[in-house]
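Take a look at the protein record below and tell me what you see:
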Amino acid sequence: MDVPAVSITVTFPSGSADLTPGAEAVLLPLGRALSSPDLSADRFRIEGHTDRIGSRDMNQALSERRAEAVRDFLVRRYQVDAARIEVVGWGEDDPLIPTADEVAAAANRRVQVLNLGR
């Protein structure tokens, strides 16, 4: 599916889904956009990703928690309707930078936001 998307570099500590103050600052423009009248009827998918440190199952769960953390921030801070946001975790399956197992790659610890339209 070819939809508008933005890759957001969110500062997740390795092995964590906690949003840092830096991550929240990166999410501010997204929150303003999603709560604007121009996008108020659009739906979005937040996709979480990880690097390849840890087990596949752990990374799958971590990627889901990261996507949920971003959704929860947008709902709490910008009152974006949670029903407009789908979350999915891709674990380590869609890296920006391919690496071997157990190689840390901060660029792979990210979320991607896709506009699914109305």
About this structure: The mean pLDDT is 90. The two ends are 15 Å apart (CA to CA).
